[in-house]
Amino acid sequence: MRPFASAPPRRTTDRLPLVLAAVLLLVGGLLLALPDRAGAAADTLISQGRPATSSSVEDSTFGPEKAFDGISTTRWASTEGVDPQWIKVDLGPSATVSRVKLVWEAAYAKAYRVEISADGTTWTRLATETAGNGGTDDWTELTGTGRYLRVYGTARGTSYGYSLYTVEVYGTTSTTPPPTGSFTVVAAGDIAAQCTASSSSCAHPKTAALAQRIAPSFYLTMGDNQYDDARLSDFRTYYDKTWGAFKAQTRPVPGNHESYDPAGAFAGYKSYFGAIAYPQGKPYYSYDQGNWHFVALDSNTFDDAAQIQWLKDDLARNTKGCVAAYFHHPLYSSGGHGNDPVSKPVWQILYGAKADLVLNGHDHHYERFAPQDPNGRATADGIVEIVGGMGGAEPYDIETVQPNSQKRISGTYGVLKLDLTDTTYTWQYVGTDDQVKDSGPTYTCH
Prior knowledge:
alpha+beta; ten-stranded antiparallel β-sheet
């Protein structure tokens, strides 16, 4: 953390002797009567209603947005008994912060930091508390500029978690508009096991609820949407009851299990999704969002010359600055299925077109790779691959760690939260407990 660049901030608390509080109230009233009071019009509330995230939640009724909704009786609460925990708000492209007011519930922080960041990765400390006693903490005379502000709790004041009724951030916001095309996407593969929410071990109702809480621009799936044989009746009984809630906003691709349908390969998949999965009459298609070009492919038929030629033509027509492709079978994976060379010819085409990102499923774990070429050589102009097969099917173990693999998680269900702008992308792997299990670097599009 960088040291303070100016005088330390001031903090007031509501746990004051009554006489002192009365004196302060009287003095405050006199100051308000003075038209030339320094900073009288400077503090503007800039955090209310802004997008918020947190390291965890106790349950879905205590989401991080509750601390920024302007309602004094709602609150954010983290999981119990775990340090550290944090809550973060997106203030917009750039904000200058002068004051932060915190109203704690009984589960307060004994030690915490108030921090600000331009990118959500590198943080600058605005204020530090080492002997908190709950109640209301009002930090004034702050000086900091950035997009994100977080309260980072390092020591709980009770045996419970951290809980805030209110986080109010005051200051000014930049008039610069957010990057054109800035948006969020939720992605997952290997989703609907043959179980329902009546079973506590059933994961796809939980990943669906998580995906909805993130509220992205749209959802995409990386195959094996419905187990075991992807019959239409199973889609209706299982997938439709969870991920089907946002079917109209979903852009899927098929996996190998979609090809097992006794009624015919992809019969249930095609009947269930219809034109959503076949917008161009084929199980592969493309679309644009912002400055991004998305290519949805059917890796069951990468030996189909028609699909390969379509891919080449589609990429040749693309005018967007960033390219993402997604399909079921990963070229590289440290999981049980391992590397799948069926995807290498497609990687070669994507790499030649300067594609940025490839998303896959098939192996039931989360994994991210450093940028690499189709031959597995690390290179700055390579493709970033993410395996996101933890949408609800039974997890697979990590078996043989591949070169360029940077992070692997197995046994934790969750979804990918992708944050994309005109020129950059980053992501988080979020578990069904709302905790961020991994955060990717921020990459610039080729």
